[in-house]
Amino acid sequence: MPVTDVQHDLDALTLTITAEFAAPVERVWEVYADPRQLERVWGPPTHPATFVDHDLTPGGRTTYYMTSPEGEKYYGYWTITGVAAPDSFSFDDGFALDESFTPNPDLPVSRNDYTFTEVEGGTRATYVGTYASAESLQQVLDMGVVEGASSAINQIDDLLAS
């Protein structure tokens, strides 16, 4: 299992997930840079993702939806704030109301920093989400973000091996 650690800190307003992959940094980067690969690992296995737009450049926007086993769609978007390929990228991640990808004002937006570091021939990925308030972080924790994100990240090994 790639996920090696999960920490949430209500005082620092952060959720940090650490994972390790038996692949070089450049290969792990490709998973996030290519929307067709990203679709295979972004959502939990029961809620596969479909990326509509994917512009991984500063100021770019990525839009996607996840589909439940019952066919319900859950929409989200990223606003890319920084890219240092293949080592890191940053983005604001939000929930959207519908296929228009209009931000949902009732759900939190997080600032995310994803970094990929070479370790012993593989890659350590550190995923840090920062929230505006402890209430916002608690809201996504209550929604199951740790379980959902961990199960999504744990799918990356199979993709890297294929």
UniProtKB/TrEMBL annotation:
<comment type="similarity">
    <text>Belongs to the AHA1 family.</text>
</comment>
<dbReference type="Pfam" id="PF08327">
    <property type="entry name" value="AHSA1"/>
</dbReference>
<protein>
    <submittedName>
        <fullName>SRPBCC domain-containing protein</fullName>
    </submittedName>
</protein>
<dbReference type="InterPro" id="IPR023393">
    <property type="entry name" value="START-like_dom_sf"/>
</dbReference>
<feature type="domain" description="Activator of Hsp90 ATPase homologue 1/2-like C-terminal">
    <location>
        <begin position="22"/>
        <end position="160"/>
    </location>
</feature>
<dbReference type="InterPro" id="IPR013538">
    <property type="entry name" value="ASHA1/2-like_C"/>
</dbReference>
